[in-house]
Amino acid sequence: MAHITLPEGLPGIIGLMAFRPEVAAPMRELSEFLLRGPNSLTSAEREIIATYTSSQNGCYFCQMGHGAAAAHHLGGNLELIDQVKRDFQTAPISSKLKALLAIAGHVQKGGKHVTPEDIERARQMGATDLEIHDTVLIAAAFCMYNRYVDGLATSAPRGPEAYLAMGARLAEQGYANSATTAAVESTV
Amino acid sequence: MAHIDLPVELTGPRGPMTLRPETAIPLSELAEVLLRGPSTLTMAERELIGTYVSSENDCRYCQTIHGAVAARYLGGDEELVRSVKRNFLSAEVSPKLKALLNIAGKVQQSGKSVTHEDVQRARNQGATDLEIHDTVLIAASFCMMNRYVDGLAAWTPENDDFYRERAVQLADQGYLGSVAR
């Protein structure tokens, strides 16, 4: 049971956003730009960074929802998402994304864990300053969302099937408006 | 030196924020509503929560600037801010704020570290659901901002007077000053 009284039937961050719309608006806008805005990183890559960070933080709702969104961007490849969460170094993804995931993993531990060597390795794999910036901010933002969702003990449906429709809607319609949230609500 | 090429004259998160106005705007709006929006928690209490979490995350920029803003709201009482960072249980703050700081400290470790007992203790001291919610989100948002600043090795001045002067601006004008819609 959640630590505070939230609207019924809305799991994870969805119930929290309904509880406090004043803070939900900027958080939606942040997610929408970071994960779906114009970027030289694909939405799939950015959702993978979010999923990996959420997995390292042990946040079930976020890793399942964003993992499903990433898989939807990749034509339904949930196996790849599981591989990234298990050990991204051996997953069939680009060397650049591996270097960015290493940075994200260090951000998850603490900002000071990111070293000049981490940055240099990402640059050598072709990452730009803006891609490194966005990777750090995506990982940092999920250190917020994960703590928000778990710190208030929100509910989370069990099993990957429960997140497929949510992932598809997040991938296709995004995070920006409450109509999308309503659509997500109706599926869970 | 910062990990990426940032404007040299801007301190803390403002450096990376200029790279990405699209994210700077919602980040600033989130800080504004959480730290200065209508709330039954005072602005000083909310800044103390942000300062404490930043201190636990060892983020020098954030703990110093938000500590200076908190002190400004408290009539210049920098010693109270220091005592909260050192050991909030023996600081001269209300039992309710101590219970909320305890929750914030748990959030800093991990969301899952917050227990029903932590929440119950805050309720027993008079905290409402909204205050508990906001405490968790303030703590979580500082776990983001601390990582944003230190993860990019953003410019962190050494001189405490810099923070005192900047805190005057933030306390008077808030967090939306550096962004515009």
Explain this structure to me?
The complex is a heterodimer of chains A (188) and B (181). With 188 residues, chain A is an all-alpha fold. Chain A has a single domain (12-185), classed as Up-down Bundle (AhpD-like), CATH 1.20.1290. In chain A, 69% of the residues lie in helices and 0% in strands. Chain A contains ten helices and no strands. The two termini of chain A are 17 Å apart. By secondary structure, chain B is mostly helical. Chain B has one domain (14-173): AhpD-like (Up-down Bundle). Helix content of chain B is 67%, strand content 0%. Chain B contains nine helices and no strands. Chain B is globular and about 50 Å long. In chain B, 50% of the residues are buried. The mean pLDDT of chain B is 96. Classes of the chains: A mainly alpha (188), B mainly alpha (181).
What helical percentage do the residues of chain A reach?
55-70%
Specify Rg of chain B, calculated over alpha carbons: 16 Å
Mean pLDDT of chain A: 94
Main beta-sheet strand count, sense and barrel state of chain A: none
Helices and strands of chain B, in N-to-C order? HHHHHHHHH
Query: What is the count of β-strands of chain A?
Result: 0
Strand composition percent of chain B: under 5%
Briefly note the CATH topology name of chain B.
AhpD-like
The helix/strand order of chain A is: HHHHHHHHHH
Q: Based on the structure, what is the oligomeric state of the protein chains?
A: heterodimer
- Estimate the global geometry of chain A from the Cα principal axes: globular
Structure classification of chain A: mainly alpha
Please report the two chains with the greatest interface, counting residues with C-beta closer than 8 angstroms to the partner's C-beta: A-B, 49 and 49 residues
Distance between the termini of chain B: 30 Å
Q: Count the strands of chain B?
A: 0
What's the tally of helices of chain A? 10
Indicate the percent of residues in helices of chain B: 55-70%
Shape of chain B: globular
Number of domain modules of chain A: 1
Mean of pLDDT of chain B: 96
Total number of domains of chain B? 1
